[in-house]
Amino acid sequence: MSSLDARYFDGTSSRAHAVRVSVVDHELDIDGDGIARRVPLAQLKVSEPLAHAPRIVTLSDGSYCEVADNAAFSQLLASSGHRDSFVVAWQNQWRGVIFAVVGLIVFLFAAYRWALPVAAEAIAQQVPLSWEQKLGREATAFLEKRIFSATELSSARREALIDRFEEIAPRDERDYEIRFRASKIGPNALALPGGVIYVTDALVELAPDNDAVIGVLAHELGHIEHRHLMRRLFASAAVGAAAAVLVGDVSTVLAALPAILIELDYSRAMEREADNYSIDLLQKNKISTASLATLFERMQKAHEKRSPGKQWPAYLSTHPPTPERIELFRKPAN
Fold first, then answer.
1. Among the options 48, 66, 220, 327, which is catalytic?
2. Which one of 37, 75, 121, 248 is least enclosed by Cβ atoms within 10 Å?
3. Domain 3-84, what fold?
4. Domain segments of the chain: what residues?
């Protein structure tokens, strides 16, 4: 029977007792300096082995032993049939550590890619319309103050578009409102929670006809009906919180980056969903999608003229590629 030097602490004082420990019949024998104890191995809590720290053997009453010779103590435990846990064994093998890290990355990606969108959609659908409208009002106040100015479109053009929109708008609890505004953001449209849709003068002027503008409004309706902004808010909040936990306080920029990239991916998926919604709504109301395709062609040419040769990488684009969308709207028309 082999034994090892150890230090025993009774759990009530800081005094260390020099003892010898050994394993006899699946029991730990502690003997020396007035200490004589024998405890079944099953009742012990043994700390995991660390390179430069003693093994701690804790007894059920709070007393414990420190064993400095890690290697010899591991052999002593092994000879008795004791085995470290599966996790502890992995921690001491670099292959296990790498496998665990890769597994964590795969799990986090799967959670973000599939679980998070489903959860965000389910939560967004439960948000009361009154909350959505309140958020829309707050966003409207900000946009009116910082982004938009009074429209220069004729009242006749605006009224014609609003009348046409009211013919295709869904009959639900929302009070839809179209706001035409001038802005430096160029040809664009923006849907807010609750039912307000902004359309810039530049987009109306670029459109080949009113059908193209109605097509854009139908697309924005898709965002509202599917509660895309609410889903993006919940998803971004969850991703940002998870990134902050993983990254810690090292850098707020690093913590924000995953949320930005992931939100862009959700945005592309939602844009496709809104595109399909607009096509279905236009076809239902016997409105051709060809004008909408022409509008996208003009927007692409206008972008190329303003920024020749400059194009966002596909992964960093908040919308599907413009040629892809043009083809999508051309197909129903043909």
1. 220
2. 248
3. PH-domain like (2.30.29)
4. 3-84, 127-333
